[in-house]
Amino acid sequence: MNVSHVDEGTLCAYLDGELSPAEAQGVDAHLAQCADCRERLDSERALIARATELLALAAPPDRELPPFRAGDVKPPARLWWQVRLPVAWAATVALALGIGTYLGSDLFERQRSASPTSQGAGVTDSIAAVPRLRSVGRLHAAPANRRGQELPAR
């Protein structure tokens, strides 16, 4: 090689054995003459050796795994308490809407059947019904004395 030093990529390829025989001979010739490149090569080899030692320590021990048994695995815990509150709120809202719709439609039907225009009744029929309602209200609203007798309305 006529380059003053071996570059980092070529040096790594030399260490990994990825160079062609002609290129490897050129690097060998340069390393024989250049102390700086030999020092870099030695430090790279030391780094690779240390990394190999550390990886050997971190590797799990070579042993056979225990056989799998179906009872060893616990089913995932279902977190119903996370779902229960939103479901309860949704059920409450749906129930309230259903009751409101049912009662509202019943009230609407009553108003519709009681309105004078739907029955074809005149104004005089609805006015005649007012005193009857007042008399019923008096019977239920009249206060009672101590003996349970109703007091006359004022």
Please, could you describe this protein's structure?
With 154 residues, the chain is mostly helical. Among the domains are: 8-58, no CATH class; 91-137. It is 68% helix and 0% strand. It has 6 helices and no strands. The longest helix is centred in the middle third of the chain and has 35 residues, at 80-114. It is elongated and about 115 Å long. The protein starts with 7 loop residues before the first helix and ends in a 13-residue tail after the last helix. Residues 118-122 and 133-141 have low confidence and may be disordered.
Give a brief description.
This protein is mostly helical.
What are the SSEs and their pairings?
Layout: H1 8-16, H2 21-33, H3 35-58, H4 80-114, H5 116-119, H6 123-141
Helix pairs in contact: 2-3
Q: Specify the structural class.
A: mainly alpha
Helix content: 55-70%
The DSSP helix count reads 6
Shape annotation: elongated
Mean pLDDT over all positions: 75
Share of β-strand residues: under 5%
Largest sheet: none
Low-confidence segments, given as residue ranges, are: 118-122, 133-141
Strand and helix order: HHHHHH
- N-C termini distance: 128 Å
Number of strands: 0
Rounded to an integer, what's the Rg over CA atoms? 50 Å
Features:
mainly alpha; 154 residues; 68% helix; elongated; 0% strand
